[in-house]
Structure of Profilin:
Amino acid sequence: MSWQAYTDNLVATGKIDKAALYSRAGDSLWAQSGSFQLQPAEITELAKGFDDASGLQAHGLHAVGQKYFLLRADDRSIYGKHEAEGLVAVRTKQAILVAHYPSGVQAGEATTVVEKLADYLISVGY
């Protein structure tokens, strides 16, 4: 399966409206839906946040020019919220999944979809 299929599958759930897949270091974009692409500084900040969330805690989480309130940050998952929308980022062995969910979708529904895909990628070595 191509990397693009993973972002397409996230969007096809109806719980995610935009998604991107990056290398674990955040230095290369593997796939994206539409024009959903983080700026280099945004993905670098996000990738660093898995190991040290202090920057995200101090300055917030940024994606595609939007600032999100940081809800959770640990070595696997980073969640952010802006009004009724949100962002879910999950790190696997080799990748970072970044997904945006629109208003009308419950945060728990969106995070479950992204976390399950991350679990699958980890199970197959990614």
